[in-house]
Fold this sequence. Notes:
- About 25% of the residues lie in helices and about 30% in strands.
- By secondary structure, the chain is α/β, with parallel strands linked by helices.
- It folds into 2 domains: about 5-115 and about 245-310, FAD/NAD(P)-binding domain (3-Layer(bba) Sandwich), CATH 3.50.50; about 120-240, FAD/NAD(P)-binding domain.
- The strands form 6 sheets. Strands 1, 2, 5, 6, 7, 8 and 21 form a 7-stranded mixed β-sheet that branches.
- Strand 14 and strand 15 form a beta hairpin.
- NADP nicotinamide-adenine-dinucleotide phosphate (NAP) binds next to helix 5.
Amino acid sequence: MGETRHTKLLIIGSGPAGYTAAVYASRAMLSPLLVQGIQPGGQLTITTEVENWPGDTEVQGPDLMVRMEAHAVAMGAEVISDIILTLDLGKRPFTAVGDSGTTYTADAVILATGAQAKWLGLPSEEKFKGFGVSACATCDGFFYRGREVVVTGGGNTAVEEALFLTNFASKVTLIHRRDSLRAEKILQDRLFKNPKVTVLWNHAIDSVVGDDTPLGVTGVRAKDVTTGAITEVPCAGFFVAIGHAPASELVKDQLELHNGGYVKVTPGSTHTSIPGVFAAGDLTDHVYRQAVTSAGMGCMAALDAERWLAEHA
Ligand code: FAD
Ligand code: NAP
């Protein structure tokens, strides 16, 4: 049996939402505990340049998150390296159990568990995951120096991944299921101007193909969405960049969710369907999903929690 620790406020997640909540809650003298989870710093730790964080024309994602953690700690938050495995919101104090064996009891909880990459769900994608199939160019791009790669998706992530991969790969093919991208125009401009990039429009990935010994990708089969014709695109690496799904597994049977798994909050606030439980960032937001909006919601959650605790704890 591990130890049990009680806190007024438990913050679960260490992305922009969690760290901002920790800064505000610390300044409100709530002495919050923040549990970081499997990805300390959250999604921005798997990207490179961030160009839309106000005050920094350009900042590296991992650097920004190190600074946010330091800020939260400097204000008095305790940042804990642990992963919450179970969370019981059925009675107060709320109880969370960490992978370390520690049990955390809390008068109030801020959920800031963010989102995780989506996969296509193809058996061949599963087979080659980690052997040529990846959802993180920043993590794996280096392995494809001088090789051809394919990226699929049409949002900001796909375009940024494709551009990043041009630093290593000899050729980058972006395959998208429609005839236009939803990525920001500035990113689209950079993509279309890059001589290493080719775009294959109106194609969906049919399967990933490769060798068994050793296990490795040799290409993808892409299906024309109008004619059904198959084109095989050779590549050594295949990057899936089709968006993210909210990390609501811990609370899916306890809180009201909507829009495919996002935690529902009272509009204009961070109150969830259980009093004393607040949610912020990508976990609640299927529309904006930005670092700055997540940070803003982290601030709101800490203020909401502070007021709620003053009335109820
Ligand atoms: P996240 O950053 O997703 O963090 C979630 C946190 O929850 C993680 O620390 C994780 O470890 C933790 N967690 C999850 N489950 C548990 C658990 N069970 N126990 C404990 N902790 C848990 N946005 C921009 O504004 N500008 C950009 O340039 C930009 N670039 C991006 C590039 C990429 C490749 C990606 C994927 C996203 C990018 N975004 C960008 C979006 C931005 O990263 C997200 O909107 C933002 O990180 C969401 O913050 P968050 O705090 O809600 O959650
Ligand atoms: P996204 O905006 O949801 O885009 C997902 C893309 O993948 C869409 O183009 C979608 O196609 C495609 N797609 C989805 N499911 C698919 C499937 N099963 N098969 C094939 N294609 C599929 O996701 P994102 O690009 O990861 O961005 C997520 C959020 O993070 C956004 O809010 C984004 O602005 C933010 N972000 C910001 C930055 C930045 O500011 N620089 C960088 C990265 C991410 P359709 O277009 O046809 O729907």
